[in-house]
Amino acid sequence: MKHSRTPRIPLPATSNAPIISLPAIGQGTWYMGEGQAPRRDEVRALQQGLELGMTVIDTAEMYGDGGAEEVVGEALAGRRDRAFLVSKVYPWNAGRQSAIEACERSLARLKTDHLDLYLLHWPGSIPLEETLEAFERLREQGKIRRFGVSNFDVDELDALHALPGSDDCAMNQVLYHLGSRGIETALRPWASRHDLPLMAYCPLAQAGQLRHDLFGHPVVRELADGLGITPAQLLLAWVIRPFEGRRDVIAIPKAVQPSHVEENAAALTIELDDETVARLDDAFPAPRGKVPLDIV
Which of 59, 62, 63 is nearest to 27 (CA)? Predict the structure, then answer.
């Protein structure tokens, strides 16, 4: 292991937005705004993460029926210009007019006039042409800067890529962690070929059909102890590691406890050596062939 400069992931320029780079670890908000932790603690955690350089904040209208967006809005009061703000629209709200209305509701809860990135939460029955049209209208109105998708596998990405305006798709958010490596067989290579960055949700193996008790796995514990880091930091450093020579993944762990926020931010400076990555590959090999996209 070595400590490096904070790794950043480039988002390619679109027809309306310049190239930008984002820190490889941001902040997730799934289950915030649901009373599982005091609201003041959730707000403070997001503000702490922002101070520590985790400026990407991901949320969705689905999380807590908008409650997570309200927490984020409170956390960003007076700090909005320091965050790269991401939210997601339900598939059934992704129509030509319904997506406009859903975005406006999200903006009201977030207390902001724009999103930096707006994602279709997962593929649905509304034609993608309608969703793209709505996203373009939102962008023309200044309510979103970029758009993207979430939980799209290769077939869905191919269908999207065939549509006019799809070249401006800026992100695909998918489940990805050491115990769930299915995207490496087909989806991640597709994304690499099309210069499409990925955002990894559940990077600490909180969910997914292929999850394991990674924190308690003997290889994970041995390697983390040997490197003087925590299992969580090892898992985050693995998710954002260079893959086939390039970095293209942003991890978005959720944290509320101050120590966990600090731990996640510190993982930005950890770069795993080849031997460590090889040990993890042996313990948790990627699938040999295409598997269904892991989704929660």
Answer: 59
Give the strands of the sheet with 84-89, arranged side by side.
56-58, 84-89, 117-120, 147-150, 169-175, 198-201, 249-251
Asked about 63 being catalytic, the answer comes back as yes
Catalytic one among 31, 63, 118, 176? 63
List the chain pLDDT tens, one digit each, 296 residues.
Answer: 666 578 999 999 998 899 999 999 999 999 999 999 999 999 999 999 999 999 999 999 999 999 999 999 999 999 999 999 999 999 999 999 999 999 999 999 999 999 999 999 999 999 999 999 999 999 999 999 999 999 999 999 999 999 999 999 999 999 999 999 999 999 999 999 999 999 999 999 875 555 557 998 999 999 999 999 999 999 999 999 999 889 999 999 999 999 999 999 999 999 999 999 999 999 999 999 999 999 98
